[in-house]
Design a protein that fits this description.
Layout: H1 2-28, H2 39-74, E1 80-87, E2 94-102, E3 105-111, H3 114-121, E4 126-132, E5 136-148, E6 152-164, E7 169-176, E8 185-191
Helix pairs in contact: 1-2
Length: about 190
């Protein structure tokens, strides 16, 4: 795994070096295009720009792969706990702050911006937490604050016991505005792997 990570980093370094050299060459070639420069020069600049854009896309893909490798090295697949957050369709709930405790220890918290809350209301899903968890029973405490219809503030706290089996455990905290109830609620959905 480390060899693969080294190859990815080496490839990324080569791409960054290519972008740097291309930029230096373009600058050394005379800077910006002048009105009397020929069409060949303009075409070369356009070609270089498209090459740089392709390199940027490759660098982003490599960065994503490196992050995934890092996650797997820190939290092997068999010991992973992934917690996702979603909001029910048509819900008026706007989460502002969400925190998780696992077996009495704070593991994560997130303050939602208005843009993130809007994305959740439009069907987005937020990966709140990825971490290691041993097999067995564990207590998960959830604390949520936010606003609902007519800008009414709310606070929700709940605790559940989860059983970790071998393999990755993925849970979804599904937020609902609580139609028919006085306060919003959190439904915990456990995904099958």
């Amino acid at each position: 795994m480390m060899n693969l990570l080294y190859k990815q980093c080496s490839r990324s370094a080569r791409l960054l070096f290519t972008v740097y050299i291309s930029t230096v060459l373009v600058t050394a070639a005379g800077g910006p295009l002048q009105a009397d420069d020929g069409p060949d020069t303009h075409e070369r600049f356009v070609e270089l720009d498209s090459e740089i854009q392709a390199i940027k896309v490759e660098i982003l893909a490599i960065n994503r792969d490196i992050l995934l490798l890092e996650e797997l090295s820190l939290y092997p697949y068999d010991q992973q706990l992934v917690v996702l957050v979603s909001v029910a369709n048509g819900s008026t709930i706007n989460p502002e702050h969400l925190s998780l405790q696992l077996d009495g220890q704070a593991v994560t918290q997130h303050d939602y911006s208005p843009t993130e809350s809007a994305a959740l209301q439009e069907g987005g899903v937020h990966r709140l937490y990825t971490g290691g968890l041993s097999e067995g029973e564990h207590r998960l405490d959830i604390s949520l604050t936010g606003r609902q219809a007519r800008d009414k503030a709310f606070k929700h706290q709940s605790s559940i016991t989860i059983t970790k089996m071998p393999g990755r455990k993925t849970m979804e905290l599904h937020l609902d505005s609580g139609e028919g109830r006085s306060e919003p609620g959190v439904t915990i959905r456990q995904w099958q792997q």
